[in-house]
Design brief:
The chain is α/β, with parallel strands linked by helices. It has one domain: Glucose-6-phosphate isomerase like protein, domain 1 (Rossmann fold), CATH 3.40.50. Helices cover 39% and strands 12% of the residues. The strands form two sheets. It has a five-stranded parallel sheet with strand order 2-1-3-4-5, with helices on both faces. A two-stranded antiparallel ribbon has the order 6-7. β4, α6 and β5 form a beta-alpha-beta unit.
Length: 248
């Protein structure tokens, strides 16, 4: 079995673990999202790391996704604009949540695989202070495997999974990489994007399924690359004007 095949097997096993062990958490999270959508609230989604941000991007303005998603993309978080990098900046989170309109009674999905950095922990703490319900997509194993004195950690040494109301474990191993190569001292090929994308799209699918079963109308986004898709999106988005910050 070559390295590509071993990578596929490792990633598939992680995603299977999500499906085997996270159904209850996914169900609770989906019902909470439906509740907030029915209250005419937007769902805030924040990927609080240079690559964890991709989980938020996956939910935001995606074909087949939900409209009322407020993607939180502050400067310096993504690896594409981290000049300087802000994921380890203590005290940044309150300004972020204020700018993106995160208010009491809202729900915030925080996506961070290792669940330890400054913006991640500050965001969870600030959300709790504001009366916001937190859904965490994170790896308990990864967080617990990072020593307390590691510089990447929040000064409080806390973990995201200890601060969230609902935790959906993405089952990513410590260090993220999953493939061992003979003669190479460290594992290669990161795994985390796959289970994170599986989780957020599973949430979307569950929300739409349950809303349809309850006779509710789920606002599902059509592809802008299909006839009428963009026009439909622009019309529906008017109801969220000023509440979804990065609408096009």
């Amino acid at each position: 079995m070559n390295a590509a095949q071993r990578y596929f097997r490792a990633v598939t096993a992680i995603m299977q673990a999500v499906m085997d062990h996270e159904q209850e958490a996914l169900s609770r999270a989906a019902d909470l999202l439906i509740e907030k959508i029915q209250e005419d609230r937007v769902i805030h989604v924040f990927g609080t790391g240079g690559h964890s941000i991709m989980g938020a991007m996956e939910m935001f303005q995606r074909a087949g996704g939900l409209y009322p998603i407020n993607g939180i993309f502050p400067p310096g978080i993504s690896v594409t604009d981290s000049h300087p990098n802000t994921e380890r900046l203590v005290g940044y989170a309150p300004a972020i949540l204020e700018h993106y309109g995160v208010r009491a009674g809202d729900v915030l999905i925080i996506i961070n695989v290792n669940g330890i950095n400054a913006v991640t922990i500050d965001t969870a703490l600030e959300a709790r202070r504001r009366g916001v319900t937190v859904i965490a997509v994170t790896s308990r194993e990864f967080a617990q495997g990072v020593p307390p004195e590691t510089p990447a950690r929040h000064p409080s040494k806390q973990n995201l999974h200890d601060l969230a109301d609902i935790v959906i474990d993405c089952h990513v191993p410590v260090g993220d990489a999953v493939v061992e190569i003979p003669g190479v001292p460290h594992r290669v090929a990161s795994s985390s994007t796959f289970p994170v994308v599986l989780i957020v799209n599973s949430l979307v699918a569950l929300v739409v399924e349950r809303m349809a079963e309850r006779g509710l109308e789920p606002l599902v986004r059509y592809s802008a690359n299909l006839p009428g898709g963009r026009e439909r999106s622009l019309k529906i988005q008017e109801r969220y004007r000023g509440r979804i910050i990065h609408q096009y």
